[in-house]
Amino acid sequence: MDDAARTTLRNLILGSRVLSVAVDAEGQPYASLLPYAMRPDLSGFLVHVSELAKHTRGLTDGADFGLVIHQPDDGEIDALQVPRVLLQGSVRRLERGSEAWTTAQAAFVAKFPQSEMTFGLGDFHLCELRPERGRLVTGFAGAHNIGPQTLAKLAAEDA
Questions:
Q1: How would you classify the pairing of strands 84-93 and 64-70?
Q2: Domains of the chain, residue spans
Q3: Most exposed among 22, 29, 60, 155, judged by the fewest C-beta atoms under 10 Å?
């Protein structure tokens, strides 16, 4: 992956506030848009979800997910050339009060201060979407396989 592709990946993951996630919710495919924060080592996307939302039923411990983060489609380029990252992996539901929860909560509230009040509500869960494989598409003939090692290297470059 060249420097331009790494920059695109970094900008997509660290510069975006929302991702589209797809899960299996009660035997049916379901997609949703969620705000997210990142683990500092880029090993996981942190989402804070309400039990009242249908997508939360698909965000159980060990469940599979797919996610997409893309640059806005401003109409300036062919829609198929919009830079995007597509990742698949598994969900880890964090245990309320654990060290992992506390660390994730701090990262999420730092990015979304208004979310602090929902952390006091009992129907909200913190989930970590742990990517296992994926693709970065930077445009025509610009597709790159990515995985956890790609994200770890990117995090190390920013450290």
A1: antiparallel
A2: 3-58+67-72+84-158
A3: 29
Q: Find, among 45, 58, 50, the residue nearest to 18 by Cα.
A: 45
Q: What is the pLDDT of residues 135-149, one digit of tens each?
A: 999 988 899 999 999
Whole-angstrom distance, CA of residue 135 vs CA of residue 109: 28
Residue partners of 121: CB distance under 8 A and separation at least 6: 50
H helix or E strand, kind and range, residue 106: helix 99-111
The span from the CA of 105 to the CA of 12, in Å, is 22
Of residues 89 and 58, the one with the higher pLDDT is 89
3-58+67-72+84-158 adopts what CATH topology?
Pnp Oxidase; Chain A (2.30.110)
Question: 159: pLDDT confidence band, cut at 50, 70 and 90?
Answer: low
